[in-house]
Amino acid sequence: MRNVTIENVTDVVIQSLGKHEAISARQREIMTSLIHHLHDFCREVNLTHPEFLAACDFLARAGQTCSDKRQEFILLADIVGVEVLVDMLSNPIAGSETTSTVLGPFFRDNAPILPKGASTVQKAFDTQETVFVEGYIRDVDGKPIQGAIVDVWEDAPNGLYENHDPDQPDYNLRGRFESDENGHYAFRAIRPVPYPIPGDETAGELIRYMGHHQMRPGHLHMMVTREGYRPLISQIFDGESPYLDEDSVFAVKQELIGEFRKAPAGADTDLVLRFDFTLPHAAEQRMAAE
Ligand code: BEZ
Ligand code: FE
């Protein structure tokens, strides 16, 4: 079709879908909606050509920023609330299961497998407060889940994750722990501090364009997985941290706020944190989604 117009270009592009090669129903659904929303966005804001070129340049620079240590697109999605939205759509709460929240860009595969109760701290900071974290992992009927893997990661007291800080050892403040026959897990770590999400490169440009700030409240990332159960990607927030109500990536949930309490006399950490997890069976997850 030649000579498309402002009025018909959306329909013309949608009609081209699958014309030369078969596409799945899902591909058609996604592309139809994407084209509609993109075109309506351009019409609504009357996007100018210089703005369009600036956006293309922005995305190209975002791609160039990505490396095995930095995932710029997750960060951009977080800043505009897309990751938290996709997480809520993907993990609807059907009952008593623990709430999920965003993965974020700082997760690394293959964290060290550590014995129950071990510490993730490889390098101590003067200002750190140590914490003993423990709890139980159960199914929705209250039965203990043995052999669940709790993968944890957090920032150091300087506000940096180890993979963004050349002065921290590889995998500092990261570890994987297994729950025992009672579903109990435990590890030692440090109290997480609030930190700014990266404000350089394109993430910073986007935050400034939105007139927002970079700060996140202190949180421990925890991912809990066990075959046969819905994987849980979550974060435990420090109930005394600033920014709980103004998280730069909109990821705080009331149910995920934990209490870092002073440890009892004689304990080998400054603080203790108890947090239990409830995982739905994979089949229950499928039914909830249907
Ligand atoms: C994080 O919690 O690590 C995070 C999440 C979203 C964006 C940036 C950081
Ligand atoms: Fe984080």
TrEMBL record:
Has the keyword 4Fe-4S been applied to this entry? no
Q: Which GO terms describe its molecular function?
A: catechol 1,2-dioxygenase activity; ferric iron binding
Q: Which family does it belong to?
A: Belongs to the intradiol ring-cleavage dioxygenase family.
What cofactor requirement does the entry state?
A: Fe(3+)
Give all residue intervals belonging to the Intradiol ring-cleavage dioxygenases domain.
Answer: 133-161
Q: Name one Pfam family in it.
A: Dioxygenase_N
Q: What is its EC number?
A: 1.13.11.1
Q: Known InterPro entries for this protein?
A: Catechol_dOase_N, Intradiol_dOase_C, Intradiol_dOase_core, Intradiol_RC_Dioxygenase
What's the top EC group for this one? Answer: oxidoreductase
Q: Which UniProt keywords apply?
A: Dioxygenase, Iron, Metal-binding, Oxidoreductase
What Gene3D superfamilies would the database entry show? Aromatic compound dioxygenase
Could you tell me the Gene Ontology terms of the biological process aspect for this record? Answer: catechol-containing compound metabolic process
What name appears for this protein in its UniProt entry? Catechol 1,2-dioxygenase
